[in-house]
Structures are given as structure tokens and as C-alpha cells.
Amino acid sequence: MKSKEYRFSIQIYYEDTDHSGVVYHPNFLKYFERAREMVLGIDNLKRLWEADGLGYAVYKAELTYHDGIAFGETVDIRTVYEPEGDYRVNWHQEAWKENGQKAAVVANFQHVCLNKEKQLQPIPLLAG
User: Fold this and answer.
1) In the 8-state DSSP scheme, what is residue 16?
2) How far, CA to CA in Å, does 72 sit from each of 17, 69, 91?
3) Which domains does the chain have, with CATH numbers?
4) Are 43 and 59 in contact (CB under 8 A)?
5) 1 pLDDT band (50/70/90 cuts)?
6) Cβ-based neighbour number of residue 66 at 10 Å
7) CA dist., res. 69 & res. 25, Å (int)
8) What pTM does this model have?
9) pLDDT tens digits, residue range 66-100?
10) Is residue 126 scored above 80 in pLDDT?
């Protein structure tokens, strides 16, 4: 079952851009990661690691770039997730420009859960 949609706003700074003033493409990995972190909750992630020895890892990532986002713009990251069995969770994320007619960047990530020995573990319950 899919989660509700979560939204996370990102301000684009000059340091985020390449020589043309457009967001350097790998930075979207950071933006999407921050948005997922906000969904999961920083305190929950910290507790999961410190108390249970569990952490999430990206197993698969797919990004499609439809439009550039420039210095000074604000980006709305829209996120939904859906568990897939006991060992995977799929994240669908989109980066939208203000007043955009479609997503500028579309991403799909697949997470797994690992213990401190890097062994696959069942996905802990997610909020949502």
C-alpha cells in the first residue's frame, strides 16, 4: 500500500549549480535523500542505528531529468513510498519547480535494510 505524499522544500544555492547556473545533476541525489530522511524521521533513523543496529541502504536508483533547475529557485520534492515484501521499500520522488507543469526530475529508489554486519534484514515499520 502506498504512503501519503510527503513534501520537502529545497532552496537552490549558487554552490548547487554548475558553470551554467543549473543544478549539477548529482545534487538531486542529496535532495532526494534529505526528503526521504525527513519522511523516516531523523530521530527514528538515529534510534534504529544506535539501538537496533539497523540502517537503510540504497539498492537501486533511477533518475530521469526533464528540465533544469536554476540558482535561486525553490524546489518542491514530492515523495511516496511503498513496501515491497519484507525486504524492500520503493520510493518514488519528483522534483518540481515553482509553478511547474510537470516534474523537472523523476526518481525511483529501492531501499533495503542492513544490520551492522551488512546482512539483509526485514524492513522496519515505516511511518505514513
Assistant:
1) G
2) 10, 9, 27
3) 6-121 (3.10.129.10)
4) no
5) confident
6) 12
7) 10
8) 0.93
9) 999 999 999 999 999 999 999 999 999 999 999 99
10) no
